Protein 1
Amino acid sequence: MSKPRVIVTRRWHADVEAVLQEKFDTRLNQDDHPMSVAELQDALQTAAAVLPPVSDRIDAEVLGADDIRAKILGSNGVGFNHIDLDAARAAGLTVTNTPEVLTDCTADLAMTLLLAVARRAGEGERHLRNGEWSGWRPTHMMGTSVTGKTLGLIGMGRIARAVAARAAHGFGMKILFHDPFPPRDEDIAGLDATRCASPEEVFTGADFVSLHCPGGKDTYHLIGADALRAMKPTAFLVNTARGDVVDEAALVAALEAGEIAGAGLDVFEKEPTVNPGLLAMENVVLLPHLGSATQETRKAMGMRVVENVEAFFNGDTPRDKLV
Ligand code: DGY
């Protein structure tokens, strides 16, 4: 029996590409270029499965192509706001994502940003590399202590809970959270986490606010001028969720006005473009969407896509079916 045609829209971990080539009639994106709308449409028209990462926008325009032959979109990532699920359903596509396997890795990166911005790590490294360091002195680059402070979480899903565990057990932090779909008590046992009825309670009470909600229309610009003004002037914002949760222009204005102390950002409103106002600020740590970027995690994510697509072609329901 011939193997199903699979198109992988960007380069993936080499071990996963090898497995994909063994199991399916796989076409790779050899030069790793971002595919255009026309290329994505062509992929949907020629393959049985199309495997995009979270950086490909699979919107109503892409999914409006005539004669779509693909039956499954195996997305490589946990977030799925890059895919118009209604349009995918209408086009007869099954859509899957990769939950769980990137939880720890992304939580580690949220803590990296939190620590880096509080302890002025990015600024300190630039200072040293620029040859500006004149030696130890008592007043040099004093940052903000993390241990014992209050961490506020917007969203309390798997990644937020993993951040809470690191913060509570590693740094003795108190945890506040808001989630319209709160976790079960057993999922937050041992964290001494306080549930807040509104996001505002988190903004006003936290020394660090870390975002862990999905992107998309329900959370668009949740962190705007009002939210930023509600935060303590000594507080820091950390975003490893989705860029459009934060109104970047309002964030720049709040930082310039000293309404908050700093920000650690891994995601941006218009990736890969970053607001020039942020690029100019020393009290902001900026990373290029690295939340899940370890060898181990990227391999696990890719293998989870393989598992989903294989299940689909075997006539089973994929474990991570979204639609
Ligand atoms: C995801 O999976 O949604 C991340 O943003 C990419 O690691």
Protein 2
Amino acid sequence: MRIDVLTLFPEAFENILDTSIVQRAQQKGLLRVVLSNIRDFSRGNYNSVDDKPYGGGPGMVMMCEPIFDCLEHVEAAEEVRGRRILLSPQGQPFSQDLAQELAGEERLILIAGRYEGFDERVRTGLKPMEISIGDYVLSGGEIPAMVVIDAVTRLLPGVLGHDDSVKQESFSQGLLEYPQYTRPEVFRDMRVPEILLSGHHANIESWRLEQARKRTAQRRPDLAGEATNSKQE
Ligand code: 9D3
């Protein structure tokens, strides 16, 4: 997969991309992330990428021309056009299902904005899909873009290696995690549940499932009923 990111702050991505699973995916040749600075496509003497909103109002708006030019430049670098994605508070809520869908694409082009928002012609002219990562106010689309990159990268075949964590995830899909323990057996009078020391794998598995269900019902009633469990049902 190739992921392009159009941003005013390419530096903001570098540390994250170079220290995460994303780096491993890139080293394995499964992913290539290409950062482009929208400011490189600004015109005129002041290199501006934002301007005052027509009709008045607070704040500044991202201009369409540098974004169109940057996108067209980046798209020309590869045969496959890919999926255009605008990170925006007005977008479709990001979810594991959407991450799964995006992981099937050959190429993603993420557009991360700053300021009060985009000139509407970015939407009408480029017809990107819009993604929000949740109902809270951030200062820009960079962190949401990193969230999307991280969630999608983990789903690319070969990135995690075919260890249990992938299986575990699908096993307990839609449930919160069960309680986990590691050494020591007793820490400040708090004991590890006896069943986990019993070596009885079937009992351990049903204890974990029960714990996961209780926890889900208590903390995330909105998820209850969502769970798919291939072993049990
Ligand atoms: C307080 C500013 N708001 C005034 C009506 C609008 C606004 C514009 C730009 C709010 C946030 C932003 C910057 N956020 C994003 O670009 C963003 C975002 C987010 O803030 N929350 C969740 N997901 C996303 S995806 C992109």
Protein 3
Amino acid sequence: MTDAAAARPAVDPAFRADVLAGLAAPIPAVPARWLYDRRGSELFEAITRLPEYYPTRTETALLERHAGEVAERTGPGQAVVEFGSGSSAKTPILLRALRPAAYVPIDISGEFLREAAAALQAGFPDLAVHPLEADFMGALALPDAVAGLPRLGFFPGSTIGNLVARTAVDLLRAMKETLGEGSRLLIGMDRIKDVEALLAAYDDPDGVTAAFNLNLLRRINAELDADIPVEAFRHRALWNEAMSRIEMHLEAVRDVAFSVAGRRFAFAAGATIHTENSHKYGYRDSRLLLRAAGWGVAAEWTDDKEWFSMLLAEAEPPRFAP
Ligand code: AVJ
């Protein structure tokens, strides 16, 4: 193997397929999960520290304030199952208050998963940590070691907001299947708020979010044998009122043509590649979404401005009533 080949990351066939299909689609779009390579994850971490990006800070404060109430409602000795654990700083806050018997972080990126699990284990030497490298979009078998323990799912960050309602319900239903009857789910969901605050959070003046979005083009160039002129695109964040979501796009600033993995693509000035949705929910919206997937809301905590909310849901038993 040459040095150049060694330095190039192995081609992920799913990434290649999503990009080729997405760029050729009538409304060009690339699934948001591909934003999170090593550099993308670092840029997202930088976003969470921006003054304009309120979700992380608000949710962390909610957890600090209310983790004790979560513990009272759920009891000790549980298995905490975190979906898409990444490198979350929120987990220790929950674990300190909860005193669970086990912690199961689930992530598709084995590298991140093992790093995060090791760091967490160091802070909680007595906790049984069982990392699970898997795609949590489908129902999963949890490690045998947590069989018989009551389960609390943890899905912070309003990651659910990346998904359109149909897919979000599929995911919430899969989580219910993974966790089982009688389980609970602690989930963060971002609220609808004034558009100025939303746009500032997704189009910061320092351009960190722009760099995060544009990094997708660099990643395509680096991993998929592409020659996209990155400077021919700019970051666009917009509020889609009808869909109640922030959308991120990459907009061509001039007519541009390029190739990806041997295929040619052309974008006229003003045309966009849709790269992410971030849905926002009202008081009833979050309940309807959860209920559609078999979860009832037992408690909800929000900040003074009602900008972000943390909900404790309970798996509804199957019912025969209409
Ligand atoms: C990680 C999906 C919750 O939608 O707010 C932040 C990602 N994108 N700024 C979000 C994101 C642009 C973030 N989530």
